[in-house]
Amino acid sequence: MRVRKAVFPVGGLGTRFLPATKALPKEMLPIVDKPLIQYAVEEAHAAGIEEFIFVTGRGKTAIEDHFDYSYELEDLLSSRNKIEALEALRAVVPGAGQVAYTRQQEPLGLGHAVWCARNLVGDEPFAVLLADDLIMSEKPCLQQMVEAAGETGGNMVAVMDVPREHTSRYGILDVGSDDGRLAEVRGLVEKPEPAAAPSTLSVIGRYILTPEVFDHLGKKHLGAGGEIQLTDAMAKMVGSGPFHGLRFEGTRFDCGDKLGFLQATIAFGMARDDLRTGLGDYLSKIVKDL
Ligand code: G1P
Fold it and tell me: Which of 59, 209, 252, 269 has minimal CB crowding within 10 Å?
């Protein structure tokens, strides 16, 4: 199975980060010095993705500009001989024709956003990455999934165990056979209350999906929160082919949440050679003063 295309739903309003996201797409918020969306695109690239499909919305043009050449900036950097910065800037830009944008015209849910990409994806398996979920790992999470899906075939979601009181924030798996790494998906429920959750194994924003998902999304069935849910369309595919949850190796940060965002900033800052000492000294100082 070859996964060549990835869909990035980036139409969300980012209300949890207002006022920062009033004029700035939430996916452009930086962790250290890189926007969230760039982490996701780099992860996809590392997993062999060749076509990057963004489902955007109003007020998201900064994302298009980010993945484009910036003539003025490049000219300035090269005239000042800032070669390293110039190379870093160029590395962000996918090749000509490898990026496509389409708009989700109404905020009808994640499932609807993915459905908006159906003509760009066509009839082949594809990945979906939610930039809010930032994963720090040795091997990029999507690459782990592409390799695992190479063995299993079919659909795959990244999963992790969460405390039972948090099940209402996630898509939750009903688990069949489970070898501790790969869990067979027997059902899926979007954001169940803890008492109703079939397990505590939660979907994290990385998916490898077969194109049949578009048939189910096209029915525009409204689910949790009155939205067209990707989880519901995936649930309809259970039983029609292999479907697994992969417990990926790595640490996931929920950057759609303020605390998760701050934790990611610290973790990614501490992983940087140029920041570790300064940030570490500061952290130990404020911890001592607590
Ligand atoms: C979405 C999905 C949910 C998934 C989550 C992962 O929810 O609908 O199934 O578990 O992403 O982050 P959202 O966070 O957009 O509400």
Answer: 59
Residue 217 sits in the same domain as residue 282: no
Model's pTM, two decimal places? Answer: 0.95
- Cα 239 to averaged position of ligand 1 atoms, centre (Å): 22
> Could you list the residue range(s) of the whole structural domain that residue 93 is in?
5-152+205-241
Atom of ligand 1 lying closest to residue 203 CA: 10
Residue 43 in any domain: the answer is: yes
What is the pairing mode between strands 51-56 and 5-9? parallel
In this structure, the answer to whether residues 21 and 83 fall within a common structural domain is yes
Instruction: Please count the structural domains in the chain.
Output: 2
- Indicate if ligand 1 lies below 6 Å from the C-beta of 205: yes
Does ligand 1 lie within 6 Å of residue 130's CB atom? yes
pLDDT at 1: 76
pLDDT at position 290? 81
SS3 label, residue 141: helix
Instruction: Say what the pLDDT of residue 165 is.
Output: 97
171 lines ligand 1 (CB under 6 A): yes
For the chain, which ranges sit under pLDDT 70?
none
Q: Judge whether 138 lies within some domain.
A: yes
Instruction: Tell me the C-alpha distance between 254 and 259, whole Å.
Output: 8
Q: Are residues 289 and 229 in the same domain?
A: no
CATH number of the domain that 115 lies in?
3.90.550.10
How far is residue 58's CA from residue 231's CA, in Å, rounded to a whole number? 25
pLDDT for 281 equals 96
Atom of ligand 1 nearest to the CA of 224: 8
